[in-house]
Amino acid sequence: SLGLKMGRHKTGTPPRLLRESIDFSAMMKQETDQDYMPLSFSAPRNDLPRLECYLTKTTGQTHEIISKNIGLSPLYSGAIKGLPARYCPSLEDKVMKFGDRGGHQVIIEPEGINTNEVYASGLGNSMPVDIQWEIVRSVPGLDNAEILRPAYAIEYDFIYPTQLLPTLETRIVGGLFLAGQVNGTSGYEEAAAQGMIAGINAALKLRGESPFVPARQEAYAGVMVDDLTTRGTTEPYRMFTSRAEYRLMLRETNALFRLSESALKLGLIDRQRHAKIMHLLDEINHTREELSKRHVYIAGGKFYSEPKVDNAEKLSAERLLRRPGVSIKDLIRSGIVGQLDPVAAVEVEVEIKYDGYIKRQLKEIERLKSLEKKAIPPDIDYNKIPGLSNELKERLNRLRPRDLSQASRVEGMTPAGLQALSMGIRLINPL
Prior knowledge:
Blueprint: E1 6-13, E2 16-18, E3 28-30, E4 53-57, H1 60-68, H2 74-77, H3 91-97, E5 105-110, E6 117-121, H4 129-136, E7 147-149, E8 152-159, H5 188-207, H6 220-231, H7 255-266, H8 271-293, E9 295-299, E10 302-304, E11 313-316, H9 317-322, H10 328-333, H11 342-353, H12 355-372, H13 390-399, H14 404-407, H15 415-428
Antiparallel strand pairs: 1-8, 2-6, 2-7, 3-4, 4-5, 5-6, 9-10, 9-11
């Protein structure tokens, strides 16, 4: 009724099983990482017990049960027509589309330390419950498994996201912001990131302040929102590092420094937390400078802070760290550099080892920024710009890109089309 173009997608979830009913001895244990980086650099170390996951596989019997009852699946009976997430196929799809596989992985994941419920990843399906019991018990280690909650599949509405502004406000209904699966995405993190962007911009709009739209080179959320609002999607969208042209700049170790200024300005962090982040950045910069000036000596495959033999190779600690097989931990253990904050240590090593590639991407980003500076008048009539195909004119009039950078990512845009658009803008607005 609002005039938004809608579509249908499909999603689902695997069954939840009773932990005590599972024979873990018939499965392969997947050890938990002991050395990890917390999501928040200020979080205290988590000393909660570590829980292992276990790996098993479907069998020929599993596949036979599914093949024999495939007509009962809403995905194959035609009851569900929505497109599923490409990278999360249901068990029916795995069996029917990849029949040559002898087995498909099933990962048994604990739901938490205070529950006996486990998540049977890989067994997501839409079969009737009685068939699900047969499927589950055909898997090694699950012979006597109890299903606490069966798997299911659902179909849901979404709006085509090119109807959204980069703030995630709908173009045709002012003040209506949308986030999550309704925008055509799939996944928890994708939904959470959209909720943050939409929530921030809704608050900014109420205050009459400028919107917050992270650029593609600033955040994965920026990549996702730009993809959705500029290119759109016809299937459930998942965020991958491969979607980001400048993914080397979007490291987990530099997220603090990429986004802290925006977070402070928006009131998402206080000045005390911002000061801690800046202190960490100073530690990184100081360490890099120290490594560039300090000399080390290599002899017999070992390195020292002082020359041990006459023919020792002399080089800077920075050049040494660039070598394969040498880590920042090695330099700390050798006394070449002092103890560092774990976040700072990782970032120093990454910056030095990838220095050449980072500089190359920074040059590309500068070129991108030059396009971003070329704003497109919001009321421009693309039909009056010569040199653009009718198809491009139609898309540009519908999407209304804010600058040449965003216009360059519109489906069907060519270098010639971008040049024609640039010239057309100069004719309209010579300044």
